[in-house]
């Protein structure tokens, strides 16, 4: 049964303990303070719990964000609560529901149950909502006690986007009441429209092809926003599950928040998808945004981190304009649920809301039982602390399993006999996830939670057929992970912090070295930016690789269909589409082996640079495994920022 924490009403209850926002204090007759609250990229993190580490944590959880919601409602005369997508997938509870318990028609998804408990007013779809297929998605959202909108996922294309038939309603107009500064109640109509990256058609082609199509975000907005206005909306809020990217609009762009904010008729933009925080230092100096003012292309905008880490707040001072309302002033904030001290310690700023925990307590326990099942043993540790600087056992085991699987799948086909390589990336390698965000499996039993820790996403296995030249360029794309290093200088920063670790593919089956003194051939988005190359001494079976020779690369559906923009992986080179997830393949591999002996084979390294050292930040527990690192001279170098440990590498 859903436990309503607070009525879904628009008028917030006051609190003697919390001060009203200045807009509520100074609003006069004909003025009303409206507070817009955003969650985004929850990824099924309802409990403050790390299912991979099997322990409670203070950095995640909608149950924690829920406590902020109650306080934030009390600070404002009027408020509305919105979610910006990516709520159905992203942790073992999501996988348990999808693969074990199931979502038959009429069942209730735990994250929807939690959102109902909190009284959300509306949500949009994120790209990960499609990971488990359309039937799973639609059965899940059918339990929502709030509208879910998305304007650019289309079941039947019209002559124009305005004439499309969409998977869910493109927008909704919320009829609410606001109380102005004189205590008078007025009607207000709030338009809410949603968007998702059109790249879902590549990322989840298996589930979506022939069933839906995706429109360009800005084109869909230009078609639908005027209709929302014509239907009497006083203000329009865009739920943009799309990051803050380029200023200029490009057809089909993934991170379209800036040009979307420029669409006439949109008053407020809520963003997400990128797992960053706006306003904040993540976007300092970025063209098209004003961090101090909290604006995106001149409009109030917010991005509330991920996994419940923040509550996004946009405070509007609305002013009566005849029979309608217009936006006067605006203030923007992303309010965190925790803080990290100089000593690396995490301090929780809120407690969990018990009603939210209770709403999914059964599914939480079932998830714990699910992830604790042992599937085999490992006689050596599996960790990712050094995965970005040396060949790594956690990546190696994924590659081994993928190769093992594809060899079986291609037996008896026209591709049998071609050399099989395997591409895998470290998914948990610190970065935005923080200094605890690493794989760390000790010797002994390997449970499902450990496999999910090795491979975070429910991707399915793919194989692509490429040339030796494309293998080299694939590795050149990965080598954008590193900054250019000047020979003969000490203590240069090694990693490009704009480059996500999941795009650092290591290809097993070939050997190669990376020359850090050369410019990267590709930028973080996969665009060619130089004619040079960092990949040196690329060999296959001890011989220089033949650019014309053909190879099979075992990978996943995301990479094989264009995710990350890797040469040779645009969807046209796929020769095998597996029905199995990469995680399932790893589980089967471990079950068959019984006991695995993970050991990196050191098939890649850096080209030596005399008199040169670089700095590398990783998790503090990395020091325990320092003697296991192969092919690189690395030593502790004190504390890094934000709780990381710093190491120095002598090239």
UniProtKB/TrEMBL annotation:
Keywords attached to this entry: Hydrolase, Metal-binding, Multifunctional enzyme, Nucleotide-binding, Signal
GO cellular component, one term: outer membrane-bounded periplasmic space
An individual GO BP term: nucleotide catabolic process
Entry-linked InterPro entries: 5'-Nucleotdase_C, 5'-Nucleotdase_C_sf, 5'-Nucleotdase_CS, 5_nucleotidase/apyrase, Calcineurin-like_PHP, CpdB_N, Metallo-depent_PP-like
Keyword Cytoplasm: no
Location(s), subcellular: Cell envelope
GO molecular function, one term: 3'-nucleotidase activity
Domain called Calcineurin-like phosphoesterase: residue spans: 34-275
Cofactor(s) demanded: a divalent metal cation
This protein's name: 2',3'-cyclic-nucleotide 2'-phosphodiesterase
Family: Belongs to the 5'-nucleotidase family.
Keyword Hydrolase assigned: yes
Alphabetized Gene3D superfamilies for the sequence: 3.60.21.10, 5'-Nucleotidase, C-terminal domain
TM helices/strands, residue ranges: none
Main location: other
Residue ranges of domain 5'-Nucleotidase C-terminal in the record: 394-567
Chemical reaction(s) catalysed: a ribonucleoside 3'-phosphate + H2O = a ribonucleoside + phosphate; a nucleoside 2',3'-cyclic phosphate + H2O = a nucleoside 3'-phosphate + H(+)
């Amino acid at each position: 049964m859903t436990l309503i924490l607070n009525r879904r009403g628009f008028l917030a209850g006051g609190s003697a303990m919390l001060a009203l926002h200045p807009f509520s204090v100074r609003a006069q007759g004909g003025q009303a303070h409206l507070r817009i609250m955003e969650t985004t990229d929850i990824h099924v993190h309802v409990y403050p719990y790390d299912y991979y580490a099997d322990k409670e944590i203070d950095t995640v959880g909608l149950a924690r964000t829920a406590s902020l919601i109650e306080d934030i409602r009390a600070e404002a005369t009027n408020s509305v609560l919105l979610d910006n997508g990516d709520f159905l997938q992203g942790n073992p509870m999501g996988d348990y529901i999808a693969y074990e318990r199931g979502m038959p028609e009429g069942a209730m998804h735990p994250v929807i149950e939690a959102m109902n408990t909190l009284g959300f007013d509306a949500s949009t779809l994120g790209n990960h909502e499609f990971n488990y297929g359309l039937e799973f998605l639609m059965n899940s959202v059918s339990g929502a006690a709030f509208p879910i909108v998305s304007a650019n996922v289309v079941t039947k294309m019209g002559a124009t986007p305005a004439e499309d038939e969409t998977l869910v309603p493109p927008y909704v107009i919320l009829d609410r009441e606001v109380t102005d500064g004189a205590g008078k109640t007025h009607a207000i109509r709030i338009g809410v429209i949603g968007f998702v990256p059109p790249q879902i058609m590549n990322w989840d082609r298996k589930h979506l092809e022939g069933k839906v199509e995706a429109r360009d975000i800005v084109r869909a907005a230009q078609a639908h926003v005027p209709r929302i206005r014509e239907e009497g909306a006083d203000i329009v809020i865009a739920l943009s599950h799309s990051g803050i990217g380029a200023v200029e609009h490009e057809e089909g762009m993934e991170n379209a928040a800036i040009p979307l904010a420029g669409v006439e008729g949109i008053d407020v933009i809520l963003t997400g998808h990128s797992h960053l925080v706006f306003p904040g230092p993540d976007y300092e100096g970025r063209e098209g945004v004003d961090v101090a003012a909290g604006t995106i292309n001149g409009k109030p905008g917010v991005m509330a981190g991920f996994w419940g880490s923040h509550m996004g707040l946009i405070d509007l001072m609305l002013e009566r304009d005849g029979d309608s309302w217009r936006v006067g002033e605006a203030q923007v904030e992303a309010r965190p649920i925790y803080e990290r001290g100089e000593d690396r310690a995490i301090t929780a700023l809120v407690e969990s809301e018990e009603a939210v925990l209770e709403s999914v307590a059964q599914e939480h326990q079932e998830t714990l039982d699910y992830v604790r099942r042992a599937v085999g043993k490992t006689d050596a540790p599996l960790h990712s602390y050094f995965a970005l600087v040396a060949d790594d056992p956690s990546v190696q085991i994924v590659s081994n399993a993928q190769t093992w699987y594809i060899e079986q799948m291609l037996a008896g086909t026209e591709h049998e006999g071609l050399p099989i390589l395997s591409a895998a990336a470290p998914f948990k390698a610190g970065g935005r996830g923080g200094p605890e965000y690493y794989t760390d499996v000790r010797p002994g039993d390997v449970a499902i939670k450990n496999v999910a820790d090795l491979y975070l996403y429910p991707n399915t296995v793919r194989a692509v057929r490429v040339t030796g030249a494309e293998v080299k360029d694939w590795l050149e794309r990965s080598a954008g992970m590193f900054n250019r290093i000047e020979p003969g200088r000490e203590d240069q920063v090694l990693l490009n912090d704009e480059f996500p670790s999941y795009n650092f593919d290591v290809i097993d089956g070939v050997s190669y070295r990376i020359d850090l003194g050369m410019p990267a051939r590709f930028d973080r988005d996969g665009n060619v930016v130089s004619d040079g190359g960092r990949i040196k001494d690329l060999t296959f079976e001890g011989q220089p690789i033949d650019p014309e020779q053909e190879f099979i690369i075992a990978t996943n559906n995301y990479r094989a269909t264009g995710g990350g923009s890797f040469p040779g992986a645009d969807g046209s080179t796929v020769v095998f589409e597996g029905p199995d997830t990469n995680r399932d393949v790893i589980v089967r591999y471990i079950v068959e082996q019984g006991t695995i002996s993970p050991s990196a084979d050191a098939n890649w390294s850096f080209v030596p640079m005399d008199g040169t050292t670089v700095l590398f930040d990783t998790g503090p527990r990395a020091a325990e495994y320092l003697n296991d690192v192969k092919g690189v001279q690395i030593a502790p170098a004190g504390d890094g920022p934000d709780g990381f440990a710093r190491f120095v590498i002598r090239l």
